[in-house]
Design a protein that fits this description.
Elements lengths: L1 H19 L26 E9 L9 E11 L4 E12 L2 E15 L5 E15 L13 H5 L4 E13 L3 E8 L15 E9 L6 E12 L2 E12 L14 E8 L3 E9 L4 E10 L10 E10 L11
Antiparallel strand pairs: 1-2, 1-14, 2-3, 3-4, 4-5, 5-6, 6-7, 7-8, 8-9, 9-10, 10-11, 11-12, 12-13, 13-14
Length: about 300
């Protein structure tokens, strides 16, 4: 009887993992969209490094916990960006890991607009902590054991984006290989269609917003984000100076809402914190979701084309 209950529980959790966690993403992806699309190009800095930790539905035992790290560099001579990222998501006894390598290319349409194309390859792994499932009995049910075998596979992502200084319009597809297989999927194919606007000028306050439509496993979710950016009074009139801090709110269909607060520790270090809450029945009994991200921006070395040396 106990084995049957465990088997049913495993099937339920696997179904939950495929649907609720079929697309793992950060709240802070609007500021660094390389976790969504390989077509995201950030040529303001020579390299960008970021780390993030996310604890979903705090207070609920076995709720998802996510660790994420990424690095990217833009090579101006070939109009290309190279990136990599590592993600680990743990939910209950299941741990999912993703290692990603990406390439993005910039084509100038005219003086103001650019076309960005990106591709990425993924190695994905799902494993199980058997100590949380087995009770110490020597006999292992073969059906139960087959459900707990580690799985791994390769996958791919694609992105296309048109942008200028203020606007971005893009489409991204994640886990493309899953579209052509009927086997059990580690991650569900996911599509993103998004538009983003960010105002840049020399005022103390600027603003931006983004709208994103997401589809996975036949489920559609919309998200709206609005953010205000504040400069230090000492930086008034300096359009290239980093913002002192930013404050944003977002809403996702399905009764999810949250806020994001970012602060520049220095000209190259940025830290952000976000909190969101699920107002449907899923959120009851939890304390919401917390996420923190640290970003380091490596500036381009100045080049002197007319120095005597």
């Amino acid at each position: 009887m106990i084995k049957k209950v465990l088997l049913i529980l495993i099937w339920l959790l696997e179904a939950y993992y495929v649907n609720a966690q079929s697309n793992i993403r950060l709240n802070n992806y609007w500021g660094s969209m390389n976790s969504v699309t390989p077509a995201w190009i950030y040529d303001r800095y020579q390299a960008v490094f970021s780390m993030a930790a996310r604890k979903q539905w705090a207070g609920l035992t076995g709720a998802p916990a996510t660790l994420y790290a990424s690095a990217s560099t833009y090579v101006d001579d070939i109009n290309a960006q190279f990136g990599m990222s590592v993600l680990q998501d743990k939910i209950g006894y299941t741990t999912f890991s993703n290692f990603n390598l990406s390439y993005g290319f910039v084509a100038n349409i005219n003086y103001d607009w650019q076309l960005h194309l990106g591709v990425a390859g993924d190695y994905q792994y799902a494993g199980y902590d058997l100590s949380q499932v087995y009770t110490g009995a020597e006999y292992i049910d073969p059906v139960l054991g087959s459900k707990l075998q580690a799985k791994h596979e390769f996958n791919a992502d694609f992105g296309i984006e048109i942008s200028n200084l203020n606007f971005k319009l893009g489409f991204a597809s994640q886990n493309i290989f899953e579209l052509f297989t009927t086997d059990t999927k580690l991650q569900t194919p996911t599509q993103f269609l998004y538009i983003q606007y960010r105002r840049f000028d020399n005022y103390l306050f600027n603003y931006g917003f983004g709208i994103c439509e997401i589809e996975y496993a036949g489920i559609y979710q919309g998200e709206f984000n609005a953010t205000g950016y504040f400069k230090s009074p000492s930086d008034f009139g300096l359009i290239n100076k980093p913002d002192l801090f930013d404050l944003g709110i977002f809403y996702r269909t399905g009764s999810q809402a949250g806020l994001i607060l970012g602060f520049n520790i220095s000209d190259v270090f940025h830290v952000s914190y976000s909190y969101d809450y699920h107002f449907s029945g899923l959120g009851f009994g939890t304390y919401g979701t917390n996420e923190i991200m640290l970003t380091y921006n490596l500036r381009f070395k100045p080049m002197c084309h007319n120095c005597w040396y």
